[in-house]
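Methods: example folding runs. The two proteins below were folded one after another, and each record is reproduced exactly as written to the output file, sequence line first and structure-token line second.
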Amino acid sequence: MKNFVTGGTGFLGAALVRQLLAQGEEVVCLARRGCDGRNLEGLDVKVAYGDLLDENSLVKAMDSCQRVYHAAAEYSLWVREPARIYEVNVQGTKNVLNCALRAGVERVVYTSTVGALGNPGDGTPGTEATPVSLSDMAGDYKKSKYLAERAAEEFAANGLSVVIVNPSTPVGPRDIKPTPTGKMILDFLKGKMFAYVDTGLNLIDVEDAARGHILAMERGVPGQKYILGNRDLRLGEIFGILSDITGIPAPRVKLPYWSVLPIAYVSTKLADYVTKKPPLAPLDAVKMAKKLMFFDPSKAVRELGLPQSPIEDALEKAVLWFRGNGYV
């Protein structure tokens, strides 16, 4: 089977590519020229250079592929030009799905995020069916992914066999950028984490999240959404696990949300208009922290067979990889 993968150079996409290769699949990866290709080094993949905003390059790269995994996205909680997030995440998704429809592929798995789902925020886990609207989205990244998910649903309604997966917070090796969660782990390893906001996340081993994509391709129902998550943890619990793994003391100062919000406003405005560099406390990240980002993955576990590997092991793999690759 020939698979077309976008985002294969990234954290989750690279784990997906490795698993496809391990089961004997042929893989074509879309990549932009000049991108960081370390995650594909040594792998038997065909790299097709192109861009999500260039449909001609997508058509050429997707030629003769039976399955499409669209995992690429502009994932950042602060960017100099917010319009770029919408171009890549919304229009780029529409382009991929339109080309897949024209090519008559067997199926598409679209990588959304739990951030595009409804979330009670009070510790009650959100599900695929929790009510949600655009006004619930905090920040441009979430808004863009919400709009892209609506586009995927529209393509599904118009006959494209597309399954939507909503990963929670993957952790593990090869987080080369790193992602915001990977940066949090790095800051902890570097002793920069002195205090934290009392919020919560749902974590999943990145390799389990990648397996969930393949299971969605094989067993998912077109037009349906599946949360690829595992364990709900408060931030203090995550730091406690990291402390057990590394011996580094966990931060003990727990800051209320209201005390951090003004700092986030100031640091983000400085980044926008003065430094032009990522802020110390991105406003969108702090706004997200107001809610406990807890989610229920039972539908994916029940219908897809989503693995639920221990989160302690996933965090340890992340720590070992960062330490072994010169990040710390």
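Second run, written to the same file directly after the first:
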Amino acid sequence: MFLGYGIAIAILIEWWRRRKDRFKDPSASWMTDFVRDELMPVEESKLTPEAKYERFLKRYNRQWRDQYGSDSIYRLTTIANLIELYISQRRYYEARGWQNLAIQILEFNKIGDEKLAAAYDKLAELEMHMGRVKEASFAYRKAAVVYRTLRNFKSLSENLSVHFDAVAKRDMNAEALAISDELLEVLETLHGPTAIQIEKHLLHAETTLDRQKLPTPRRQLLKLLLALHISEEALGKDHTAVASDLKRLASFFAARGKVTAAADLSERARMITLLNKVDGVDYPGIERDLAAVAEWLELRNQDADRTVAFHMRKRAERIAEKRLSKTRR
């Protein structure tokens, strides 16, 4: 009889705590869990290792809650371990509840860095496991906002890439295309307008989405990038054919208002053309061109660029000295 009263009082105390608590543990049957994990004697030897581990984590979580408060960030490690356990057991509904709790605690403690973004990414993955695409998309976007605020473009590109695949596989073409456009901008910021990463994503988008419904400029950009990268691979990055491909890309970007990208590509094409020109016989004013190409190579600083630039400057000095000696005569 006294045991029954004790259990009832313990349940009432836990119920009152939960009623006042903004950060309730996400359990569909908290009373059953509380009685089973805290009040009922259990033969540990009969429990599976996973059941023992879950029981330990829940008890540890309550101890942290009671000692430091339900909004304490100290709870996050235990909560993360519980989430991983549930994911390994494919108990995605329970894992999602705990993940939402982790996000609540992070936001309450004003932790708005990569930890919060990663938490939203994890929530999105759980929503996808449950087939809740719209909810997953919302969580991916929340993570993207944090990454963009932090200017963490590498993580943002990874987030957008996973988000794109998630919605594209569900035939949500309009939303997938919007995410793809955003990803292309981020990849351009990270790697430049002619990056191989942009080409790979464009190819991936073409195979994933309906190619005929893709905007014409995207198909044009992919064609131009393929031509450029094939020329670079087959002929070398400083071949005259590469300069021609760069000029076509510059015209493409200029027509779409990307003035800076167009100017950079035009300048690169000009310097490649000049590099091939100074590689021939001497001509009037070659010293100036050699100096310009040498400076460009030093700035680019790829492979043997600095060595080539050094020899170009020496060649310019020899030509200048030779002309000066002729003038003196």
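Comment on the second run: The mean pLDDT is 88.
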